[in-house]
Sequence to fold (135 residues):
Amino acid sequence: MKKIITYGTFDLLHYGHINLLKRAKEQGDYLVVALSTDEFNWKEKQKKCYFEYDKRKQLLEAIRYVDLVIPENSWDQKISDVKEFKIDKFVMGDDWAGKFDFIEEETNTEVIYLPRTPEISTTQIKKDLEAKQND
Fold:
């Protein structure tokens, strides 16, 4: 069984997220999603999510491509997650290209950067909503 892992916040879940999760799952048999906690998002990224962690986790668990959702509490947990869950492939969007190559160097896990769905992003949704409020 080939195990895959990906990481993300997955706030304001949209079809770009679904595309990424589907393509990640196509890389193997079992998809683990490490979901950024509210505390991690605030401490490390100064981002406040629209949906709290438990709601975002519930949404991800309802997606057929996702087999397991675990919390992402720190940037440093990636190597330990790869080892603990016996991950074969580490998958991220290509906006992160090169940032996680160290995982391939430190483990036997292949790192893959998948193309994003170009016309959609959570950031763009937030900007569009803000613009509509100002109309």
User: Anything to note?
Assistant: DSSP finds six helices and five strands in the chain.
